[in-house]
Design brief:
The complex is a heterodimer. Chain A is an all-beta fold. Chain A has one helix and 13 strands, in the order αβββββββββββββ. The longest helix of chain A is centred in the N-terminal third of the chain and has 5 residues, at 5-9. Chain B has one helix at residues 45-54; strands at residues 6-8, 11-17, 20-27, 31-34, 38-42. The chains are: A mainly beta, B alpha+beta. Strand 13 of chain A pairs antiparallel with strand 4 (31-34) of chain B.
Amino acid sequence: MGVDLHRIGTGISSGSSRNGFNSIVAFPSVVAPSFPANGSYNSTLYGVEYPVAHGGTEVSIDNDGTTYYFPNQTCDVTVVNDGFGGVYTAWGTASNIQYKDSYQPLVTFTTNLTIMISTSCSGEQGPFSNGNSFNAYNHNGMGGYYGVAGGTNYPWANSSFTSESCSYDDGMGNYYTYNYSYYADGNGGYYTYTS
Amino acid sequence: MATQPIVIDVSWTAFVKDKSCLTLKEFPKGGRYSGTLTLISKPTEAELKAELKRLKISLPV
């Protein structure tokens, strides 16, 4: 009979066994490691976010018709031992519960913008990416929020959206080709010119 | 839905917003524009820059 290495490795077995040559193999008794008792103090976390799931409160913000919720409190909380060498956060010990400071960023909503272009010979084309709009908010220190920035970022003027080549027949066997390029105006619009 | 563009005649044209010229472009065969900027067009680049200076409109960096 072989030795159950796993059981030895975990330190919960002792005694003897026979090896593959029918000899007695002896191994010493192993004392299971002891860990701090479950629930005993391990450490303290200071100023951590107080999760809503564990008793914290939240603030709601509407953006484009959707309401979003964010935790708005911090706390000090004790980390305790679990009796098996690990730890867990004892949220029931949360103390020094405060609303997040007014300078702390809360959220920035960003909306990607697009543009449709009425081309000279291919009809309406797009949508093409045309920058983004954004709204940024901070906590206000009292559980609410305030806006800190907002605006729109358009592509730089002269950035190219697309281009096309068009051929025209003048009805007398002559063909003409025109190249059109479409550029951002830096303000959400576009211009085109023939080359 | 795209906004129907306006026609730009053969010209040098400045695209202006709040007393700032965002871009300045030559349209040797004309062109079209769709947007909300103010367009100022002149036959030559020199004439256009002179007009922008007269109107106290800053040129693109």
